[in-house]
Amino acid sequence: MLSPDTTPPERRRSSPAVVIGAVSALSLAIAGCSNETVTAYCVDSDSLDPDGSYRTVDEDRCDDDRVSGTGGGAYFFYYGGNLNGSRVKGGSTARPDGIKIVTQRGTVISRGGAGGRGGGIGG
């Protein structure tokens, strides 16, 4: 017990900026180590059904760009969604950032993580 003449030592407090900075750095580190993966399906842009589904095609028809192909159809990767037979829906045509993207065959398109860059298939 303290005597009446003794005052307790002052506690050091971290400034809110220091605490917020430390939490932000930790959040980025955790996000950078995320093991979240999304599947990229190669689809035919001409196959869009009223229900929002696309017909999947051999991924050799797609490259890592938004649209590729020659002739009558264009092909692109559709990210995520639910595959039902040869049709996929519920995903996005927008390439997601910061997560690992893998094709149906298992080819890694993007490794994800903070500041990462994805390479093309085979490159």
Report on this structure.
This protein is an alpha+beta fold. It has a domain at 37-110. It is built from one helix and seven strands. It has one helix at 16-32, and strands spanning 37-44, 54-55, 75-79, 82-84, 87-89, 100-103, 108-110. The strands form two sheets. A four-stranded mixed sheet has the order 3-1-6-7, with no helix packed on it. The chain has a three-stranded antiparallel sheet with strand order 2-5-4, with no helix packed on it. Mean pLDDT is 72; it is low at 17-32, 65-72 and 114-123.
Summary of the model, kept short:
This protein is an alpha+beta fold. The protein is built from one helix and seven strands.
Which features would summarize this protein structure in a list?
three-stranded antiparallel beta sheet; disordered C terminus; about 120 residues; four-stranded mixed beta sheet; about 25% strand
Number of helices: 1
First-residue to last-residue Cα separation: 71 Å
Strands side by side in the biggest sheet: 3-1-6-7
Unreliably modeled segments = 17-32, 65-72, 114-123
How is the quaternary structure best described? single chain
Q: What is the helix fraction of residues, given as a range?
A: 10-25%
Instruction: Give me the secondary-structure category.
Output: alpha+beta
Mean pLDDT: 72
Q: Tell me the fraction of residues in β-strands, as a range.
A: 15-25%
Total count of strands: 7
Query: In this structure, how is the largest beta sheet organized?
Result: 4 strands, mixed
Using the alpha-carbon principal axes, give the shape: elongated
H/E series, N to C? HEEEEEEE
Question: Any idea what the radius of gyration is?
Answer: 25 Å
